[in-house]
Each structure stands twice: as C-alpha cells, then as structure tokens.
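MOLECULE: protein
FOLLOWS: sequence and fold
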Amino acid sequence: MLVRRDILLRHVDAYMDNMYWLPCQGFLHPDTTYKEIQEGTFDPVVAAAVCGITAVFVSPSDSGGEFGVKCSAHVEMYLFQNIYKFSDDLLVLFALSITFNLIRGEFAKLWQSFGVASRLMLGLRVNWDVLPQNQTFAQQECLRRIAWQLFYLDRMLAGGYEEYISCRAENMQIALPCSEAAFRENRPINAERLYDKPGSHPSTINLHGYQLRLIDLRHRIQVTTKRLCSSSSPSQSQLDASKVMADINRLQNELTRFHMSLPPEILLSDQTVAKYMASPERAGYVFLHTHLAVSHIDLYRFSLPGQRDKVSVEILRKLPREFIARSQKQAVAHAMCLGRFCDAIQNEVDQMHDTGKLKLAGDHSTFQMSTQCVRVLLVALQYGLYRDIADVTTAPLWRSVEVDEAHIRFLIDSVQRVTRPWCDILNVAQQAYNHNATLVEDFSKTRKVADQRAAVSMFGSKSEGSTRFPGPDAILESIATGKPEEYHSRMASHSPSDSTRWLGSHPSSPTPNMFATKTGTQTTEASQGDAAPGIPLFLAQARNRPGSATQDPLTYDAENSLMPMGDLDAVLPDTNPLMNIEGVPMSGMHSGDPSMFQQAIPQPSAGFLMAQQSVFGGDVFMEHYMNRQHGQGGYSQPPGGY
C-alpha cells in the first residue's frame, strides 16, 4: 500500500511541476491534495485522472503510456456512468480528462467532452460566480479556475473562428485566478476581472490571470487575421486599406499595453529566465512568453509569402507597400525573439544536474509553436528579411548580436533543441521535430520555402486572384525582396508616410481605457451573411471517422491549426503497442465498442487505501508498471521537495 501511495505522490509531483502553471491547470489545491493523499482520503477517480495525465512524465516509456491510457479509461467510464448527476465534482473530472485527451491528440474526444463540460459549467453557473455558499474560498476558486480553463480551451478549439465560441467573454462574470498566496492560504480576495484596468503591484491575480488576458487577445488577433485572409467572408468586400491598417495597429497597441502591464518580475530578461527556469512556475512563464511572441507572429504573418491563409490580391493592392514591408519585419523579429528565448530556456535546463526530473524546457505547448517559428525564420533567410531588423520592430530583442544567416540558422536550431527532449515522451513532438528538420533540409537544397497551402489543399481552395495578374505571393515576394514590380502602378496610390500613421517603430503608450470590454468588436461573420464559417482544423480532425481514408494524422501549427504530418495513434514512440489489459479498451479501439460499457467500475470511496485496486488496475499491472519505472529516478522526491 505504501508503494502505491508513493506512485501517486510521484504523479502528483509531476503534475505540480509540469502542468499546474499552464493556463488554469492549477485548480488542485496543493496543500489539500498532499494532505488527503497522506490521510488516505484523496478521491481515487481524481487520482486516476492525475496519473493518466502525468504517466508519460513519470515513466517516459511504453509502460507510462499503458498506465496513462488505463487510468484515463477508468475516468471516462466513471463520467459515463455518472452523467446523470449535476455536480461540480464531475466538472473537476471533466477538466482533467480533457487535459489528457488534449496532450494525447484525441481530438474527437476532446471536442465532445469539452462540449459537455462547458454546458455543465454554464448549468452550474460558475461563470456567473453563483457558487455554493457552504464552500471555502479555495474551493470556490478551484471552480473559477476550471471555468477559465474551459475559456482557454474554447479559443484553442475555435482556431480563430468566432462562430465556434461557447464560453463568450461577456458571460465570464467571474474574477481572474487570484494571487497564488491567497489561494493556498484560503484567504478571500477580490481579484481583477478579464477587462479590468491592471491594478498596482503586487497584483491580485497570478500568472494564470496574465495568461488568460493574452489568450483572449490572441483569439481576437486570430479572428481578425482569419477574416482578412478569408476570400469567402461577406465582410471582405467592405475592407479597405485604412480599416486593415487600423485593425492591425489597434491589436499591436493592445499587445504592447499587455506587455507593459506585466509585473517587473515576469518581464523577459536573462535574470527572469534564470529565476523561473529553476522554479515550479517554469512552465507558466515559458507559456506566457512563447505565446506573446507567437501572438505577434499571428498578427503579422499575413504579410509573408507562402502562408496557408492568404490575403486577396485586391486588398494587397490597396495596402501601402511600406506597411506590408514593416509587417514582414515584425513577423520575423518576433520569430527571432522566440528563437532566442528557446535558446535561453534550454541553456538553463541543460545546466541543471541531479534534479531527478526530465530536462524539459517549457511545456507540451512549446513545441506546438515550433513549426510556425521555423517557417518564418526560413522565409526570412529566403528573402533577407532579417537585415536591419531592430529599426522597425516591437520585439523585445534583449540580446544585441549581429544578425546574419548563421545566426538565423542558430535560432532555428535553438527551436529544435527545445523540441528534441519532448520526442521521447510524445509522438506529436517527434513529428514536429522531423517536419521542421525536413523544412530546413529542403531549404538548404533549394533556398526556397514550400508554399504552406500545398500541404493542406484538402482543407481549402487554391490561391485566389485572376490568372491575368500576379497572385498574393508574387506581390508579397516583390515587397520582401525590395524589387520593383510591374503591377505596382496598378495599386492604389499611397504615400509611404500613410503606413507610418498606422504602424510606427514605437507603439503608442497606454491609455486609461486600455482594457475596455471588446465585445462590440466580435460580431460574427454569420450575422453578415448566410455562408457557414470555415472548419477549424481541430474540428476537421475530430470529424474524421476512425479508419477513414481521408483521415490524415495532424500536428500543431500556427493559429492552433494543424498540418498532416504523421501518426498520432499513440502518445509514445511506437516501440511497443499498447496492451489491452483486463478488457479495458485502449484508445485505438472503436469508441462505440459495447464491451466498453460492460466494465464494472467501483464508485469512489472516502478511504483512499481501500480503493487502490480500482484506480491502478490490480497488483499484476502495478507490479509491471513499477518494474518499468525502476532505476529511472524521476519524481521520486517526497512532497515539498520543490
């Protein structure tokens, strides 16, 4: 029994170190969790859910995958058998189960379980701060954090399509996650809300709160650029140059004001990198700065040649040439910043010795952004966009180095260095790494970056534009290379100074209403016409039938989009197939297998020790799992060792 408790403690330690500081994953109260484990009162189904998520961190081998899938199957069965209940206990389990499916790439399960969880959250009115009065502040804060986790997942799944949003910002009438000290001390505090003006430091919110503000802003950036690049959008004909530039400038100013609102101890510097990479908040810090850089890239990559989503020729002809050129520099500068950040965080991790933990810099979402960053850096090499970069960028290039082709290749390798350690844990990381390596290899041979649209032609139409005139990429390539083009005389006449009005080297300073509610800007395309919105690629994968010939395995790319790149049927490298233990269906089985619903799952009891058999699947499997862990040394410290 003591061995089983030790196994659970390892998994909880792994959760606190790798997951807790990701967007609103910190809803398990640490002190309460460890206390209940020691007393034997920790809910065994919650224990199974935590073990399912963290098994690959504790045992990065095929046995970790087997154990994680078995734990997840137990949780899913419990949720199915108790779906008739309307309880916040189920909301906790849904939040953990969704996280497992996200990491594993089970997009159909993720999409559907999110739908049930979000409806349960709305039904419990957690988003309206209608919480049980008999609960402590910490218990209520736990539910608020789960509501915000669903808010984040909603925007990730929507992929820039406002029409798919369920947890609307105007309905999130709850405070952001409060300061960590108040949560852990069970001390009531009035924390800031999503669109409140940032308060003075120390803030009433924690790292989760800043992540959520960035997530909301990134979603609105994706919505804006998605509509800009959507040829079927009813509003496309209404766009003119001044509106496009005003929208881009407005969002850039919001990003700048967000950056200025961060506490000094979170701002990017060598000192904060060293501090956070040695702290339990490492994953949250990396998530924040990774997504801040990627949000800038999302905002400006419409201006780069070879992108999947392309601006129409008609709009490009209206935009001042200098505005497009500055936008290209912005995208490249922030990709460079992300590459330098990857180098800094991996260097810090590589210098740590005898920690008993995996040498992972960042979190499971870091490598998801790698393909976008590598592609932008290769485009910069192809067109020389890295030259004179510091004069026209808002990127926090905190290290002054000479920028040449060798440095850009160094940054690409830095992105790959961060991805490489994850390849032993998740197949999706291995596929991202291999894909990026292929991109670099092909570029070295041809000095060209392949058009991204070609890889996903099954999801969209060909580039628009008349065959009599240059397409979007021809226009963007001409601007990137600085060569005069024969079509330029056909573009609307604009003075170069016009773009400076909208996109200067230095953004404007904050204004008093910097965080005013943005709901007025989120009118959906559906209200402007009868055309159905596009399909987010998370949804496109989820809709594919298992075994369908059209089902292409996918991995993460820009704007939370996906690219066909390999097999995602297993979490771990395919050294051994997952075992079908005791009749529990593995995820590779058809989800409708009747045998799945015939397994008798014990209900959770107050006594943790009495329920271990149902959580861990029996002595035979536990012995097998423990033997596979022997000698690895990961997460063997007692609680409180961080």
